[in-house]
């Protein structure tokens, strides 16, 4: 018991790649003959789920993909049809797992698929999946990434909320209903739509800057939403400039501009702001913004031009 306490004390509180260990799982050591890999994730480009199995487990799967991509058996799974036992067996055989592991691995894949779909996960990964000397197949270590958009279906997730280390910026954004991912740069990003937000981050990188975040305010740009987004960006001490990139579709440009102006009246902004407004009634929106332009609020009509100005104001140009 004393030895267990000693080892536990050495591990608890340990920082592993940014994650602080707060709980321990204790079990008997496993005898290992072979190590495998198995996972399910979402392939957005194919609009299907992706299953991957490899006989080369116990190492980062990215390293296997680089060194020997043929060692990974892959299968796209239609979400309507799901994973069948025949599919699981085909994956196991194509991956070249030891015949002694086939039945056990197939059953674990079926269970893992159920975990992935019913648990609303983005990723479930077992690495390593092991074959023991007596022919048993066990999951020795695993990783699960959950889809935050499905949290309303899973009140049981609240139990783990205090376990994960949450970026305070992300916690603040989540409380305001915003899609936010903190990064390490100095240019704050606000955009409407995930695709535009990602493109904005890319353009800032391309012109020599570094985005401080990914922030998607969704389809609208009301004063309340914009004020919430600016408060989140403003709370990041690393931000030296803010790039607001809005494309008006259903939301008209003048409504977006008025929302931005009203939001600026509510939030005491520290960093200069560059606004690129395009889309429906963009000219009318720019005319509204023009009345409020200063060295702290600059409107630029093009995405690249706005990114360059934001990077310049952040001192990265």
Quick take:
The protein is α+β, with helices and mostly antiparallel strands. It is built from 10 helices and 14 strands.
What does this structure look like?
- The chain is an alpha+beta fold and 317 residues long.
- The protein folds into 2 domains: 130 residues, 2-Layer Sandwich (D-amino Acid Aminotransferase, Chain A, domain 1), CATH 3.30.470.20; 146 residues, Rossmann fold, CATH 3.40.50.
- Helix 3 crosses helix 4, helix 7 packs across helix 8 and helix 8 runs parallel beside helix 9.
- The protein is elongated and about 75 Å long.
- The model has no long low-confidence stretch (mean pLDDT 89).
Strand content: 15-25%
Please summarize the sheet with the most strands: 6 strands, antiparallel
The ordered H/E elements are HEEEEHEHHEEEHEEHEHEHEHEH
User: What is the total number of structural domains?
Assistant: 2
Shape: elongated
> In CATH terms, what is the fold-level topology of the largest domain?
Rossmann fold
* Average pLDDT over all residues: 89
Low-confidence stretches: none
CATH class of the largest domain: Alpha Beta
Classification by helices and strands: alpha+beta
* Helical stretch tally: 10
Architecture per CATH nomenclature, i.e. the level-2 architecture of the largest domain: 3-Layer(aba) Sandwich
How many DSSP-defined strands?
14
**Helix residue percentage:** 25-40%
CATH H-level superfamily of the largest domain:
Succinyl-CoA synthetase domains
What gap, in angstroms, lies between the N and C termini?
59 Å
